[in-house]
User: What shape does this take?
Amino acid sequence: MAEPIIQVEALSKLYALGKVGTGSFRQDIKRWWLSSVLKKNDPFFSETGAADDSHIWALHDVSFDVKEGEVFGIIGSNGAGKSTLLKILSGIINPTRGIVRGRGRINSLLEIGTGFNDELSGRENIYLNGYFLGMQRREIKKKFDEIVAFSGVEQFIDTPVKRYSSGMYMRLAFAVAAHLEPDILIVDEVLAVGDADFQKKCLGKMQEVSSRQGRTILYVSHNMQSVISLCHRAMHLQKGKMIDIGTSLKVVNAYMSRHQQKRYRQSWDDINHSPGNNFIRVNFVELIPHLKNADDPVDIRTPITIRFKFWNLIEGQNICVGLHLFTQSRECIFDVSSTPQEFRKGLAEGQVDIPGNFLNDGSYYFSLIFVKDTSVELFYLEDCLSLEVEDYRENMNWFGKWSGHVRPKFPFRVRQLAHAKEAVPGS
Amino acid sequence: METIFDLSQTTSSKKSWAWEIKPESFWWKGQFLQLWSYRHLLLRLVRRDFLIHHQQTLLGPLWIVFQPVIVLIIYVLIFEKAVGLSTDGLPPSLFYLSGIILWTLFAECFTGTSFTFIQNGSLFGKVYFPRLIMPLSVMLVNFIRFGIQFLIFFVMLLVVDPRQVIDHPLRWFSAMIFSTVVVASFGLGMGLIFSILTAKYRDLVNVIHLIVRLLMFATPIIYPLSIVDPAFRLWVSLNPMCPVVEFFRFGFMGQGTFTGVQLLYSAGSTLLLVLAGSLLFNKFGNRLQDVI
Assistant: This one.
C-alpha cells in the first residue's frame, strides 16, 4: 500500500461575512484588546462553530489522506469549500485550525496563465509564468521547445500575447502548466475553459502525468465523467464539510443522485383538489427509471417508464393522451400519443415506455396532454415530471458535451474495403 | 481496522513529513528561506517592468532621463532664478539634480511597494511564491532607473567640476553607495509597512501621496540644511534621509551639513525599518489574503 503523501487533519477555515472596511479598525482594536490584553477567548472563534452569523466556516473539520501516485478528486457544488481547500493546500491562505502535512514539491494550477502579461511576447510569458509556478531556470530552458511545440504557437512566439486569439492564449498557458514536474499537482477546474478539443488535450495530458509519471494529483471538477475516469478516489464537500469519501465512482454516483433535479412522482388523492377541470382530473403521474441499483443515478442507458392515472368525468368521452418531452431550453423532443378510445366514467390508467440509449445527458421535463375527439384540448398538465439524465461513456477519452438532444444507439458499421496498396485510384 | 492501522503508522512516521501548513504565520520562517530559489522570478519581473514600460512608446527608455531633467529645469527656474534660494554655494543645476534623483529613488520605492497587496491581489490569490519578491523587484527596477539618472548627474559633474571627482574618488564612491542604499531601503521599509496597512484600510492610499509630498519638504532636496535655523536642524535631522542627502552632496561636491552620528542613526533606523517591514510583511502576507 502506498504511503500517504498529504495528510489533512481537522482542517477548518473561518471567513468573516459582510463588508470589510468601515469600522474594521475599531473591530481589530477591540479584538486585540480582548484576546491579547485581557487574555479572554477570541470572540470570533467559538467552539461550537459558526455561532456568530457574521462568520462562516468555509471548511469545517475536514480530514483525509492522499496517497502517493493517486489521483484524488474533489467534488461539490459551488461554495462547498473546494477552492478554499485548494488554496490552503497551495499555501496561499492559512487555515483557521487544523494542519496539513506533506512531502515533496507541490504545484497548484488554480488558473492557467497566472501572471501572464498581455504586452509581453509568448516567449517572455512562458518564462514569467513558469517562474511564478515555481519552475527553475534550467527546467524551463530544457523544456522550452517542448512547451512551444505543445502549444502550437511557434510562429507567434515573439508576438505580444495580446494579439493572440483566445484559443492560442489558452493553449500557451496550458502548455506551460502541463510541463510542470511537481510531486503533487493541484488542479482546479482547468477544464471549465476552452473548447472540446482543448479539454481533450488537457485531460490526456493529466492522464499521462498521473499514469506514466506516477505523480499525485488533486483534481477539482464539475465534470463528473472526468472525475470518474481520472480519479482513483474522490471526496464530496458540502458547505465546508466532507460528507463522502471513497472510490470516485461511488462518491460521484452518490453525489449525482443526491443532486439531481428530479420530480418522479406527483399524486392527488382528492379528486376535488387534483389538477384538471370538469372533463378530466389527474390522479397521479409517476416516472420509474429502471435501474439495477436503486442508488445509481439515471444515465443515458437507463430505460424509463411513465405511468399515470386520471379520472374521466364524462361518460363515453373519446380521449387520447399525449406525452410531451421538453429540454431545459423548452425545445420539444417528442410528442407521442395513445390511440384515441372511448372511456367510461371513472379511473383510467396509462403507461409509456421510453427505452434506454435514447436520451442524451441533460435535464428533461414531461407534460401530459388530454385531447377529446383527437382535436379538442381537454387539459394540459405542464411539466408534471422531470428528470436529469447523466452522461455515461465507455472506452472514451473525450469528455466534451455530446451534441444532440437524443443519443440513440443505432446500428453503425464501418469496414475496410480494400487494402491501400492494392487499389488506390489515380495514384 | 485498516484505518486504525493507518493512523498508528502515520504517527510513527511523523518525522518523514517534509512540510506542514498550520494556522500560525511566522515572522521569518518560510518565505525568507525561499527567496533565493525564486531569484530568477525576481529578475524576470524587473525585465518585465522595463519591457512593458518602454514598449510601444515614442521615446522609450529616454523618459527615465527626461523626467529628472525637466524637473531640474523647473526647479532652477523657480527656486534659483525666481526665489533665489541658497544652494550652499554649489552649482544650482548639480545641487537640484542630486536632490531630484535621490528623492525620485525614495518616492518610487515607497509608492511602488506600498500598494503591493492591492495591485497583486488576484495574483497572490492564485499562486504561491514568496510575496517579498514583488516589492524587491520594484526596488530593483528603481535602482536601475536611478543608475541611469545618476549617469546624467555624473556627466554633468565631470563637465562642471571635474576636480571633485578626480581628487576624491573614495569620498564620492562611498557617498554614492551609502546614500542610495539607505534612501532606497528607507523607501522599501516604509512601503512594506504601508502595503499591509493599505490592504486592510484602503483610505490610507490617500495618505501615501501626502506623505511623499510633505516628507520632501522635510528633506533638504530644494534647500541645503545649512540655511535651516540651528534650533530646527535637530528636528529636521530626525528624518533619516536628511543626513544622507547632505552626505551625498558632500561626497560629490564637497559641501554638506551632517555628522557621523547622524549617518549612523540614518543607517540604523533604516535597517530597523526594513527589518520590521519585511517581518510584518512575511507574518501578515498570507493573512491579508482573506481581506483583499
Summary: The mean pLDDT of chain B is 86.
